[in-house]
Design the sequence.
């Protein structure tokens, strides 16, 4: 992540990145404070997390929607997972496999066999919308 922040700072030199603080950062929250907060105009990492969250809008979903988010996603705390919202909605479905990381879902080291996510999405569309994707 530090490398990504450095790349962004290089692309946008008008952003005055405190590289000493970046190299000393030990938590994701530190990176949010150094980059996300000032670049996008938030007051704090918590302000960003609250305002950028889609969770408050989930119950307004009125079309079949699937969210797949692995339980071992290192970016999210347990409070981020909308289990209650999924339980209380006819349209919003949450699938939280134990593994997958942050959008990983790798089920094979061979790219041609690594199709779990695509197959799961196609099955959801067929079962909930009635369209078969081949």
Sequence:
């Amino acid at each position: 992540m530090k490398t990504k922040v450095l790349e962004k700072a290089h692309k946008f030199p008008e952003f005055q990145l405190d590289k000493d603080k970046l190299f000393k950062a030990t938590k994701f929250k530190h990176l949010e404070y150094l980059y996300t907060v000032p670049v996008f105009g938030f007051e704090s990492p918590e302000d960003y997390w609250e305002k950028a969250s889609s969770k408050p809008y989930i119950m307004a979903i009125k079309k079949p929607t699937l969210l797949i988010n692995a339980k071992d996603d290192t970016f999210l705390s347990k409070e981020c997972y909308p289990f209650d919202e999924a339980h209380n909605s006819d349209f919003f479905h949450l699938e939280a496999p134990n593994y997958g990381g942050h959008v990983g879902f790798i089920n094979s080291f061979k790219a041609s066999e690594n199709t779990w996510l695509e197959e799961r999405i196609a099955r959801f569309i067929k079962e909930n919308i009635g369209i078969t994707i081949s």
